[in-house]
User: What shape does this take?
Amino acid sequence: MMPLRPMHEQERSGPVPTTRIPNSTAAAREVAAQVVAEAEARGYSPEAVFAIKLALEEALTNAIRHGNRRDPAKMVRFEYSVSPTCTEICIADQGGGFDPAAVPDPTADENLECPTGRGIMLMRAYMDHVEFNERGNAVRMVKFNRPTAP
Assistant: This one.
């Protein structure tokens, strides 16, 4: 799994937990709710919390459906860190991986009616940083908590 490289390690409370969750959307919802609750507790704006929730749901769904191909015998590895200034999330599946650059642009005319392919676009649009490992079976996402104007 890609290691977390916290930008504000001194603000993090304790070690980054690594969790192996069952390959199910119910388990994914539970860990997503935990991250969202921590971001809210640390004063993230509603817009930033929404961005984290959306990107997290997309990444977990991709890991479960595409990476692990909904195989109940497989697990999803999940790490996260929420500080007052930055949230970092790493998700890895047990699949063979993929090439993110080879995913067709979902906004291109020929892909507008295609029912898949928007998750990565949304993750990149809503998070401040998104990177995949070389194999393509792990993603690291970062969202900064920026103060909102009064």
Notes: The first strand starts at residue 18 and ends at 22. The helical segments are 25-41, 46-67, 119-126. The CA atoms of residues 31 and 124 lie 20 Å apart. Residues 6-10 have pLDDT under 50 and may be disordered.
